[in-house]
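Dear colleague,

Thank you for sharing your sequence with our group. We've completed the structure prediction you requested, and as agreed, I am returning the results in plain text so they can be pasted directly into your records. Please verify that the sequence below matches your submission; if there's any discrepancy, let me know and we will rerun it promptly.
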Amino acid sequence: MDERASDLLIKGYHRERLTKDDCRYLLSFQEFSPEATFARDLFTRFFREQCDNTAAIGAQIGVYTGPCSGDCGFCYFGASHTSSKAYQMTDEVLVDYLEGCIRDGDVNMVSLMTNHDCPVELLAHYIGIAKDILPKEVRIMINTGDRTAEDCSVLRKAGAEEAYHVCRMGEGKDTALDPEDRKRTIRNLIDAGFTVATCTEPVGAEYSVDEVIDNYFLGMELGCTTGSLAMRMPVFGTPLGGKPTLSIKRYRQMQAVLGLASSWHEGSKKVTGWDTGFFSGLNSLSAELAGSPRDSAPFSEKSVGHTLEWCRRTLFGGGYDKIRMADGSVTKLDLDYLVKTGSI
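Please find the predicted C-alpha cells below.
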C-alpha cells in the first residue's frame, strides 16, 4: 500500500486535519485499489466508534411541491420538464403525517420540504403546526428555497431550529439558480440562529475530483454544522436522468476520504448527540413522505421513497444494534424492536 496514503488516512482517523491536496491525493487511487479499500474500512470503523454503533431516524414531509422555478435538471419538479401539479398540503394531512412520525418515539427530526417558490408565510404556518404536534425533543428542520435574511428570521421565530441548504454541484448550469444566492441563504440561516446541514450533491460521474472536494469544503467554510455526500439518483424524465452516476465503491471512497478529512470538526455533537466530525448521515436515515424531488409519484412513501419502517429495517440490516430515541435515550435495535414498531 502507498505509504503516504496510509499515513494520511491514519491522520484523519486520529482527528487531524487533512487539506484539499491531501484529499486530492487520496482520491487519485482507483476505487478497487488497496488504498481505497483501506479508506472505506477505516472510515466505517471511525464512524461506528464515534456514534457507538447507534442509529437514528428522521422524516421528510413534502408540504409544498409542484412545478418549480429552480428548474433543476436532476429534480422531478423542474418547471421546464415536470408533469407534476401544484400541491399544497392541507393542515389535516400534515397533522396525520406528524402524528405518524411520533407514534413510536424514535423519530428525532422532521424536515418540512418545499420547492423554491413556497411563500414564507405558508412555510411558517406549517412550522407552527409541527411545533404544536411534535414533542419539544423532536427537531424541526426546513428544506426550502433561497430566502432573505428577513425570511429566515420569520422561519426561526416560527419554531424551526435546523435547516438543510446546499450550493449544489452544477449550480447555475444544471439549475436556474445563482450559486451566490445559495451561499447567501446559508449565511442568512446561520445569522438567524439556524443550525445548517449541507451536502455535496448530486454527484455524478461527470464531476472532477477537484469540483467534489471544493464543494465539500465550502460547507465548512460557510459555517455549516454538518455535511455529507450524495450521488445523483437518476430521475426518469429529467434532463440529467440518463447521465451516468458513480459506482458504489467510488462513492464510498469519496465519503470515506472527505469524512476523515473533516473528522476534526466537532459541530455535529450538539445536534445529534454524538461527535462524528463534519460528516453525517451514515448512521441516520429519513423517511420520504408525500412529494419528493426524486420521485414522480405524488406520495413517495408508496413508490421509491422510504418509510420509517424501511429506515429501521435498513439500519438494522446495516449492523447498527442501537437506536437513539427522540428523548435522547438509547434502545436496542433488534428483531423484537422491529416487530414492536411494525417494521417487519
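Summary note from our side: The mean pLDDT is 95.

Kind regards,
the structure core
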